[in-house]
Amino acid sequence: MQNDLVAALDIGGTKIAGALVDGQGRLLLRCQRPTPAQEDAETVMAAVTAVLGELAASPLWARATAVGIGSAGPVDAAAGTVSPVNVPGWRDFPLVPRVARATGGRPVTLVGDGVAMAAAEHWRGAARGCRNALCLVVSTGVGGGLVLDGRLRAGPTGNAGHIGHISVDLDGEPCPCGGRGCVERIASGPSIARRALADGWRPGPDGDASAAAVAASARAGDPVAAASYERAARALAAGIAATATLVEIETAVVGGGVAGAGEVLFAPLRRLLRSYATLSFVRRLTVVPALTGTDAGLIGAAAAASLGGRSETAAVAGGPS
């Protein structure tokens, strides 16, 4: 399979990205479209089809033997459906058969975006060689995936490690998932920005009210902006510590757009983690930034499709044998 490629899709609440990925995890061709997240199901699917169409227009397309999808969740890899919290038009949407049809019947593997990120980091990033890790993507939403005993563990439906919807505030705000006080409701980029604005932070002259703009203000010494990141870090620390206590991970790898805040996020996260991970078997838990960057979802989707027959992805639900 060394000459074969995988067509990878990374589907989130902000963008739909596609790539042709080789056996070394290199993206030979890449394209993306904005996610029409508030539109109906077919409009969102049309954006996916457009991305696939761009890939199929390349002479390299003939070498693509499989398709891997990392999607915002929850997903159901066994059923081939997705119900992303941030894409309300997709509820039990039959993404796998639709993508298979659009790609000429190629085999399609589906996992949650957090599992895809974990696959990427275990293959090419900060979790490489690590036997027990939680990998988180903190962006428009918050997802995660687990590496246990040296293997990616996606679970029966492809959602194992979905830390974003662990409740860390039992009396917290309702979450679109139906829960309350979820990690995602506190630590996602939109949540960080929303909280900062509610507490009195104001954007600069350019009007940028994103989490990245809040991080820039925090870096410049704005206490309200810093407090919003502190709150996000506390939610992440609580969720990471709970996961470590449950399955004894040794490392938490944090990626996604919010991780781009650097020490604005990581300094309070490491400090607060020490106050949550207190039992003897989790005290040595480390937190490190992801290395695969914005390509993590695409690299991981390709890995999940068993690119090159990689053994550590063999347990991914829905993957080819």
From TrEMBL:
PROSITE patterns: ROK. SUPFAM superfamilies: Actin-like ATPase domain (SSF53067). InterPro entries: ATPase_NBD (IPR043129), ROK (IPR000600), ROK_cs (IPR049874). It comes from the Bacteria. Belongs to the ROK (NagC/XylR) family. This is ROK family protein. It comes from Streptomyces yaizuensis. The lineage of its organism: Bacteria, Bacillati, Actinomycetota, Actinomycetes, Kitasatosporales.
